[in-house]
Amino acid sequence: xxxxxxxxxxxxxxxxxxxxxxxxxxxxxxxxxxxxxxxxxxxxxxxxxxxxxxxxxxxxxxxxxxxxxxxxxxxxxxxxxxxxxxxxxxxxxxxxxxxxxxxxxxxxxxxxxxxxxxxxxxxxxxxxxxxxxxxxxxxxxxxxxxxxxxxxxxxxxxxxxxxxxxxxxxxxxxxxxxxxxxxxxxxxxxxxxxxxxxxxxxxxxxxxxxxxxxxxxxxxxxxxxxxxxxxxxxxxxxxxxxxxxxxxxxxxxxxxxxxxxxxxxxxxxxxxxxxxxxxxxxxxxxxxxxxxxxxxxxxxxxxxxxxxxxxxxxxxxxxxxxxxxxxxxxxxxxxxxxxxxxxxxxxxxxxxxxxxxxxxxxxxxxxxxxxxxxxxxxxxxxxxxxxxxxxxxxxxxxxxxxxxxxxxxxxxxxxxxxxxxxxxxxxxxxxxxxxxxxxxxxxxxxxxxxxxxxxxxxxxxxxxxxxxxxxxxxxxxxxxxxxxxxxxxxxxxxxxxxxxxxxxxxxxxxxxxxxxxxxxxxxxxxxxxxxxxxxxxxxxxxxxxxxxxxxxxxx
Length: 555
Known about the structure:
Pfam families: GATase_2. This protein has helices at 51-63, 65-70, 73-80, 94-98, 118-129, 155-164, 186-202, 222-226, 244-262, 292-295, 341-350, 377-390, 395-402, 411-416, 418-427, 510-518, 523-530, 547-554, and strands at 2-4, 101-102, 105-111, 147-152, 175-182, 205-212, 230-238, 272-277, 280-285, 308-313, 316-317, 332-336, 438-443, 447-452, 461-465, 469-473, 486-491, 497-501, 506-508, 531-533. By secondary structure, the chain is of the alpha+beta class. It has one domain (94-530): Glutamine Phosphoribosylpyrophosphate, subunit 1, domain 1. It is globular. The chain starts with a strand and ends with a helix. Residues 1-86 and 98-102 have low confidence and may be disordered.
């Protein structure tokens, strides 16, 4: 039997072009990355949990009584660990996890010439409207489970606002834009803005202005309006970095520091960053898909242009929807669920203390922890992808690590693409597969793509037209299309991926994507250098401990 040596295991996070360095989280806290899980209680708020769902949950609870005993490790870990923060890590609990899953409708549109237009945004909203049947609606028959779009930052729109406010035109390279859900209470909102501004200033970033995002609250359902946040954008100038990746990393650190700072505030769980980036922005909410464009006036403006758009309609399963749980997340739009989430979260926490990378410049403690059992499976997968990407990985590489295909004994890979097998073998001892069913759309603003997990149980169609536009959607027919203009079309099978390089206009289908990633480093050599064999030994023929004690120690 062969395993990766603990002492010499190649490490997960590294800067492009450098030898790998370990990067992992910490023991200093419950992940506050997705802390905006606020849902104001009200006697009139109804939960959409039916008889079948409630009974299924009851069965699951009964079935996992043994594992609940194993989770006593939480007390051991809490008592034994010396914490460097007031935030205490907790073992991922199954009850928390199963309450946040869903099945949704997703898609993206991308212009291969990288030409920004309002037409892309309009088409995304039309396609999103056609996904209404894939989403859920509240008991008031008006509050959606969630919908949203991710695009590039509409600089013409925000510069038009800045000019009217007497603010200088934004420097696109050095400006970050945050889309933020703030507390409903005005005093608490001002407190939150003060904390945000102070941390930006402490990090050497200049706050250029705050913009209340214009919305039409009349289209919001009753239940959604009860918890509707104040929605504002913040503009910050990053002067000490020149490289886009370094700028994005600095914004990521700032967001993490802000999340930590507000964690102890009474209004802390009402603050949530939909996005904070130099490249992308996310408009989303607890809305039906057909009203998203009416809710956000920005999306109606001809000044809102983008070369791409990811759209998402959420169907929330066994949970009361919340504004922050709408998608897209900061990197991903996810249709499906992650059925291995408990193990994924616990493994992420277990390696936090050992993970380091030169790109973080000894600031790893400030970006920990990396998972939150109270968040949705989609949010946690998004956070894991964000960590890998901000640590220097390409989005395609991050998704191949997190959601690998079924590569063992794969005849095509074995014969034609052994380097892809080397890649997967290199990482199999370092990252556990986040297994779906899952269709994932992703973008960092420079690349956009989609992948299907190895189960392949979520539909994904793609097509390309003569006018150099690529479409991916959960189903065909989301947009009127002249079939004579279609030059390429297909579907994603289990474990397959499609990727678009927005800067070069190239489309890479599954095999090309995997080859490019696998050939970026000598993974085969690294596997040979770091793989160690364990010699067989004489194990006990029978157990000598009580089964519950064994289970607890194994967990």
